[in-house]
Amino acid sequence: EYLNMVGDWSDARVEPFGPLSLSPAAAVLHYAQEIFEGLKAYRHDDGSVWTFRPYKNAARMNRSAHRMAMPQLPEEAFVKALEELMARDGAWVPNGEGQSLYLRPFMIATEEFLGVRPARNFNFHVIASPAGNYFGGELKPVSIWVSRDFARAGEGGTGAAKFGGNYAASLAAQLQGASRGHDQVIFLDRSPEDSLEELGGMNVFFVTKDNKLITPKLTGTILEGITRDSILQLGKDEGLDVQERSITFNEWKDGVASGDIQEVFACGTAAVITPIGQVADLEEVHTTPSTDFPVANTLRNRLVGIQTGHEEDIYGWMHRLA
Ligand code: PMP
Known about the structure:
CATH topology of the largest domain: D-amino Acid Aminotransferase, Chain A, domain 2
Family: Belongs to the class-IV pyridoxal-phosphate-dependent aminotransferase family.
Radius of gyration: 20 Å
Oligomer: single chain
Keywords: Amino-acid biosynthesis, Aminotransferase, Branched-chain amino acid biosynthesis, Pyridoxal phosphate, Transferase
Strand content: 25-35%
Pfam families: Aminotran_4 (PF01063)
Low-confidence stretches: none
InterPro entries: Aminotrans_IV, Aminotrans_IV_CS, Aminotransferase-like, B_amino_transII, BCAT-like_C, BCAT-like_N, BCAT_family
Structural class: alpha+beta
Largest sheet: 9 strands, mixed
Shape: globular
Catalytic activity: L-leucine + 2-oxoglutarate = 4-methyl-2-oxopentanoate + L-glutamate; L-isoleucine + 2-oxoglutarate = (S)-3-methyl-2-oxopentanoate + L-glutamate; L-valine + 2-oxoglutarate = 3-methyl-2-oxobutanoate + L-glutamate
Number of strands: 17
Bound molecules: 4'-deoxy-4'-aminopyridoxal-5'-phosphate
Helix content: 25-40%
CATH superfamily of the largest domain: D-amino Acid Aminotransferase, subunit A, domain 2
Number of domains: 2
CATH architecture of the largest domain: Alpha-Beta Barrel
């Protein structure tokens, strides 16, 4: 089912999943005013339904809206939409190990016109869809392709917005990587230094042998991942030396070759934490030294433990939906 909100955001209703009615001249179809979010609903052992840090998603959607000249949605209305959908659809949230219900809020420009200008009418919807684990199994290391031909986003662009066009821009790189047998793509900032940005749908982390936990800093060109932010906190709790800074592709290559970098992993709502076993460009394949990814496992277990209600939620990250 999905939740449908139009107009002043006050007339929300839950409807069976089905086609939308949209004018062929709707602005979203031509000028791509479209933003979205992704969250998961988890069923806890007592039957209650929870989600993870939804006000972070609400705030990020409003930042995306600001960048795309779209209207703000009050954070309370965003969270209430999830609650209303789960009040109706809560029974859909599965029980099984590693299972959850994926929630996809999105806003589109529905006004019909053919000139280039910001639209004035928008719909906000939330889709609920059962989700398994993103890459199939538990912590199976993935292989990453470095995109040299394509950028995902540039400075002053839309990279920090969760905006459909960014994903469209990443697909050609994704195809290139897939045709060479890789699971995911990582984008560089295309400066002479080749600083790392993020994967098509995940942020990236490095664990060094002297216990540093490093992730590219937020430059305005990458998505401010909520999993990323949470891992920075959990990493501190584990006593790691947490660093947000620019890190180059050469540091990755040299680090895994010398053993200074022991683990590499990607993170996001869908897969939580996924180890990166190798990274390849046209010239070479660079293999991550660790095969058992102990730090990635520890952080994943803590985060999944909080999300599934099996570990104490000391930061108040969980929000009860139903
Ligand atoms: N980067 C991109 C481009 C993404 O699409 C996502 C998924 N939302 C992430 C990073 C991770 O963000 P989060 O942890 O909030 O899911």
